[in-house]
Amino acid sequence: MIGFTGATLERVDHERDDPAAFARALTHPGARLLVLHGLEPPIADDRLALVPMDPKRGDALLLGNLGGAPLFAIGDGVATAPAMRSPTLMTALAAMPAEGAALYGIARSLIDWHVRHGFCANCGQATSVSRAGWARACGNCTAQHFPRTDPVVIMAVEQGDRVLLGRQPSWPPGRYSTLAGFVEVGESIEEAVRREVLEEAGVRVGAVRYVASQPWPFPSQLMIGCVAIAEDDQLRIDTAELEDAFWATRDEVRAALAGESGRFVAPPAYAIAHSLLVAWAE
Ligand SMILES: [Zn+2]
Fold first, then answer.
1. CA of 145 to the centre of ligand 1 (A)
2. Whether 144 and 214 share a structural domain
3. CA of 84 to the centre of ligand 1 (A)
4. pLDDT (tens digit per residue) in 194-209
5. Is residue 5 part of a domain?
6. Residue 268 and which of 54, 91, 176, 230 are 20 to 30 A apart at CA?
């Protein structure tokens, strides 16, 4: 299972514009609430801790139906400057069942978006929550604003029996991963892959194949995992983007994925880079 996927949440889009359906969900006897504290998840016994819904929390966002009962989310004490992900948080998410991390990711992205989008991008006036938490509406110019998802390409670039890995200075010592970058306006996934690899590593890429994707809730990316074929192996590293890059052999990748000490430390299991490297190594 790729990290932050696997939630069995039913997203009940048809209920979002229906105030009567929202009121019924609030008072549903099985309704539950996910409370984030400053964007941190509530955890009990290594699981995401949901509490019974308080019908007075009509300001909560309706995530959808989980196991046939409504699930709401709310952020208590969420700062306008969102906390960055901490090693403690990522360890806790990795330890919980996949669905818990996935639900947390949905709630975190949505709550964080509301906190940072209180004003209309069209006219500058204050906006209010609409569509049961899945939009914001401007009462002044009637514009509707929807939670954003930013596409990012992440690619295992292969050349013969080797794969291109790079590292950023902020990463833990020894950590290397596949290259990644935001898709720009007016660009296809394939074009974004070719541009990013050329910009960051100076390598020209030919064929690009989509493999899998992952929502990444820090704050709201969609990671689009690809395998790409390099046309040469000459690296010209952009040191403003990468601290280092190298071509790793299949044996080196397998050793890192197995947790053995070797040439590099693999990305963590909840990251799609890990899944991409597993697929490539196999
Ligand atoms: Zn407006």
1. 9
2. no
3. 30
4. 999 999 999 999 999 9
5. no
6. 230
